[in-house]
């Protein structure tokens, strides 16, 4: 864990620290990415997990519209740019060791490219996996092609 | 995305699929790990994100007690084995492309090694980072040494 996050462990509630120092200490992985969990701010539903590089994180914090890094496409992915299903940021938090993000968002419609509200629909139960949700929208109507 | 997860995209709600086939298709990364998000099952609070290898995932599903893979220690990490703050599994789900897990858990006390309930206490706000939570328990009382 980097020194700035170690120092924050005993920082009191509501203490404030320069954002730039914190961003400089974020534990991006060897590909320059950090996992970002998106949670619907009012219902608490976990919608998806995707990845951000520093540019995506800074854009998200500045614009309030969630921007990820698409590993499959190798470029910034402004959530909803092809599907219309945008994520608006309510708040963002790093974890104790600065290598995971939790985003509180307002998600328009489905977060998942399959048209489901959440990506987490494959439940692991005893000796079976069970599909736990139906699409809200036919995915063929969400995309010309591609994902987002 | 692997073929089994592609096939599940259009599977109907409550359809069931052999667990072994699904586990064989999980998108473990180049280190053999998958990120696992732990959410308190009743409050919806996101507590932490850690990593599992296949052995940790299978142990968790079999025993109902959450077991991660500690990247820093290079071994299985049965959450709470040193701190006493265990996680009991209520349910587990994979996401649409089979490379992230969401665990619904019953967390005893704090999930975070700092003694806080959740690891996500470093809020990113405008030009500052703000500490949003106090420890429930002094971390010095949680551990002799180490983390867990």
UniProtKB/TrEMBL annotation, chains A, B:
Name of the protein in its database record: Phosphoribosyl-AMP cyclohydrolase
Reactions listed under catalytic activity: 1-(5-phospho-beta-D-ribosyl)-5'-AMP + H2O = 1-(5-phospho-beta-D-ribosyl)-5-[(5-phospho-beta-D-ribosylamino)methylideneamino]imidazole-4-carboxamide
Gene3D superfamilies, A to Z: Phosphoribosyl-AMP cyclohydrolase
Cofactor entry: Mg(2+); Zn(2+)
Phosphoribosyl-AMP cyclohydrolase domain sequence ranges: 48-121
InterPro entries linked: PRA-CH, PRib_AMP_CycHydrolase_dom, PRib_AMP_CycHydrolase_sf
Keyword line: Amino-acid biosynthesis, Cytoplasm, Histidine biosynthesis, Hydrolase, Magnesium, Metal-binding, Zinc
Protein family according to the UniProt entry: Belongs to the PRA-CH family.
Localization per Swiss-Prot or TrEMBL: Cytoplasm
Assembly: Homodimer.
GO molecular function ontology, one term from the record: phosphoribosyl-AMP cyclohydrolase activity
């Amino acid at each position: 864990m980097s020194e700035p996050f170690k120092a924050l462990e005993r920082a009191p509630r509501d203490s404030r620290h320069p954002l730039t120092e914190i961003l400089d200490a974020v534990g991006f992985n060897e590909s320059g990415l950090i996992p970002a969990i998106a949670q619907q701010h009012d219902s608490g539903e976990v919608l998806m997990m995707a990845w951000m590089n520093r540019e995506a994180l800074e854009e998200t914090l500045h614009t309030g519209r969630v921007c990820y890094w698409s590993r499959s496409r190798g470029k910034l992915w402004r959530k909803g740019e092809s599907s219309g299903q945008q994520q608006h940021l309510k708040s963002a938090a790093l974890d104790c060791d600065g290598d995971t993000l939790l985003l509180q968002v307002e998600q328009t419609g489905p977060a998942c490219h399959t048209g489901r509200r959440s990506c987490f629909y494959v439940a692991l139960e005893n000796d079976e996996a069970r599909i736990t949700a139906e699409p809200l929208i036919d995915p063929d109507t969400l995309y010309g092609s591609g994902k987002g």
